[in-house]
Amino acid sequence: MPTLLFLWTVTLAHCALAGHVCHKPPEVPFATVDIDKRVYDVGEEITYTCDPGYSHQSGSRKYTCPLSGKWPISKMRCIPKKCPYPEAMINGIVHVIDLNYQSLIHFSCEPGEERVSLESFWRLVN
Prior knowledge:
By secondary structure, this protein is mainly β. It folds into 2 domains: 23-80, Complement Module, domain 1, CATH 2.10.70.10; 92-123, no CATH class. It contains 1 helix and 10 strands. The protein has one helix at 2-17, and strands at 21-23, 31-33, 39-41, 45-50, 54-58, 62-64, 77-80, 92-96, 104-109, 121-123. Strands 2-4-6 form a 3-stranded antiparallel beta sheet, with no helix packed on it. A 3-stranded antiparallel beta sheet has the order 8-9-10, with no helix packed on it. Strands 1-3 form a two-stranded antiparallel sheet. The termini are far apart.
């Protein structure tokens, strides 16, 4: 009788889990999921990673597909990295509005000076 009860419990658990899957997890701006597929099995774990130029600010990076088949709401947030302030230029002016990743800075000459290079804008990529 204990063997029959065990088999019945295993079968019931298997039936309860059958058909429960998680579909694609919610997208997180500026982040990717380590395992990208359409369907995930219950208990399968995923990890979000911030894209290059962005850093993890808050929220969990790891999530597990629950029995409900619905991913928990992701509170993970990736924010742009800050770049260092550019060095001072001789006879030049650096115009900085923002030092976030992919922001633009503008270089110009002091009055009476002439620009030597063709580029006066730089995109921050560090």
